[in-house]
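subagent[fold] <- orchestrator: predict structure for attached chain, return tokens only, no commentary.
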Amino acid sequence: MRTVANSLFISICFFASPFLLLAAPQQSELRWWKGNLHTHSLWSDGDDYPEMIVEWYKRNGYHFLALSDHNILLEGEKWIAVTNNRGGQKAFDEYLKRFGRTWVQQHERDGTNFVRLKPLDEFRVLFEQHEHFLLIKSEEITDKYKVAPIHINATNLRDYVPPQGGNSVLEVMQNNVNAVLFQRKKTGQPMFPHLNHPNFGWAITAEELMRVEGERFFEVYNGHPAVHNEGDATHASAERVWDIILAWRLAVLNMEPVFGLAVDDSHNYHVRAPTNSNTGRGWVMVRAAHLTPEHIIHAMEAGEFYASTGVRLHEARREKSKLSLSIAAERGVTYRTQFIGTRRGFDRTNEPIRTAGGEPLRVTHRYSSSVGEVFSEVKGPSPSYQLKGDEIYVRAKVISSKPKANPYSKGELETAWTQPLVTGLK
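subagent[fold] -> orchestrator:
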């Protein structure tokens, strides 16, 4: 099993430098593509058949989808009992009604009816359309350290990656990230890992995540009701973790920035409720010339995307000294945009949170308010921020007045997050 120390030989030179502002191609060559990168089916712990799930996403305006079941790729032969699974008879009846007996394969053994789960390469032909809809082969590498669940999605894998394990939370993360990057280097196929729901099981701290080499993406928003996006009195929110990581990686550790994703992490497809992990809660909008895995991945590695739970942008422009947005405003909805960042010379003081007896807890430290400071708040559909010259990075968070349909949590408003404009350090 690889360790953090001996696995750092893996080259990550194909990632863009965080200190360069990449010149985007001409706007006429680009368009926005909507996609979800975290989805579960009956191949692991979802409650519906993959064809039914894919059809929902395509019908609801998505352009790409990754089915990322736990520790498995959707390939090979897999049969499940019709009734003894999370979807049960109801899911099977709906599947059979939609796709018919010619498509749905069944057999009976010892009085039990079994159904064959179709592999990705068999059902993708029903849905994929050039420059319209794309399916991406993925896996949720599901690992742990002691009781801490550590899940890392791998997007556009060629081959299955088993959980790598390790002797600490950091080492488990690093070993799994390294395994994905090793496969990318070995095969030449573009792919990337991303860290899932850092607050699930309160598993991961900012201090651990900021040190994972080659990790360029994490979930700032996950639609599963058990992942604690917002944190609590003891634990930092996912967004607070993001700012801590950005400040330390860019100003202290000399590492790449981490970009923020919004995902569904959908498991439940039959009953829509805040207590279920449903479809349509979080997604990414990627600006690329073509709808292929290569174009999507390269655009995301360049930060040419935003995360959203409902807010749409016409434009998100990261220029040399300005971050500007054009919001696709809806009638009767108001918008306020917070420009958030950290300045050079910020207060690096941080303290562990302790028990009543003085023992430090394994949670993200408390940091100065100069980390992740709100530089300005602008109302209206065309907000912008002109850099003053001392920012390390600045990112935008757009908060609408529109309540989120089928929210992750009570009172949730539709929101969007841009990727940070990294200005470089002097």
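orchestrator: received. Logging for downstream: The mean pLDDT is 93. Residues 169-187 form the longest helix (19 residues).
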